[in-house]
Amino acid sequence: MRICLYLSVLLVTLSSTASAEDLVLKKGDRLAIIGDSITEQKLYSKFIETYLLACHPELDIQCFQFGWGGERAPGFASRMENDLVPWKPTVVTTCYGMNDGSYRAYDDGIGKTYADGMKQIIDRMKKAGATIVVGSPGVVDSFTWARQTPDFDQVYNDNLKHLGQIAADLAKENNFPHADVFGAMEKTMIAAKAALGEEYPVAGGDGVHPGPNGHLIMAYAFLKALGLDGDLGTVTVDAASGKAEATGGHKVLGSKDGTVELESTRYPFCFDGDAKNPNGTASILPYTSFNQDLNRFTLKVTNLKTAEADVTFGATTKTFTRDQLNAGINLAAEFLDNPFVGPFQRVMNEVAQKENYETTMIKGFITNFRQLGGQFANDAEVQDAMNVLRRKMTEADDAAYAKAKAAVEPVRYSLVVKAK
Predict the structure, then answer these.
(1) Which residues contact 393 (CB under 8 A, 6 or more apart)?
(2) Least enclosed by CB within 10 Å: which of 16, 252, 325, 342?
(3) pTM for this structure?
């Protein structure tokens, strides 16, 4: 019975939990990622930014994360004019609700306060001409809360689900995309715990702040809502002639005796950790359709005469059937240890440094300009000084973005197909 339940939940999970419509992003967009302490963890934001830089470099998207611990939607609404608007975002993602629920059972007052704050954010961004991906809050973890207060996880997840529905309704009313973060995390958490045990955390050790595994699901929900289709290119090998061709940011440098030499300017998304470690991203993969929906780097082998062939990608060799290879295998999913892992990590490290600076820039300096707006509102010298500081800090962030973008260097590697 438990196995049947797991399989049924897994099948639901493997279907898209955040339906992708038309691509929201346009080339050169400025994407602001806003939210509470979960955003300030700089994990799902780092995954989103790295994905856009490395997996879709052609879009040329610049990101900035505005996370603030303990914040609620009305709190961001009060600081957005000073903190966000001057950055001139064209697309904004929101992730509020975890604190807005006040860690108790839902009531209409909670819903109204949350809705009012979200409406202020949406209305101001509409005025600025930005598109908003209205995200729901995530989940609290059942195991963590069960240890503290029995059944409280059910009570609070019900609250968060209500807030998520308010977010979905606001998105629909304003003709904006909705990222169902709650739905994606809830379904994945059920499937993962069924397989790995109740003590496997998806919403983090404290039940609220996810580890990298949970943040990968959050990134998945937002990337799907942004409309990314996940086609990262195809390599096709003709086993009879030995010829090969590639599309989507990948170039064949040579092909002989089943060995294809390639150069790629687009990376697949890469993962870390083992099959059970919540502090890595690999352990959650069997319970989400991240690779299927967002991370398809395809190898097709045609005219294979034998029933099977070995494929070597990096240091790993795996065997596939002729039918599998003819239909196409997803190299990103089948070979987690691959030639892109090191280069991908270097890009992510640059993104992490950039986002750390952004937290310091906003929380340490920019947001404090509001305190000078009253007493020194008419003091031109003070206003000029603040403008200079804002410009200098923005230039430093732009330089960090350029450095992260430049880290996406072409990767050269071999792909070997050997008939068995």
Answers:
(1) 361, 365, 366
(2) 342
(3) 0.94
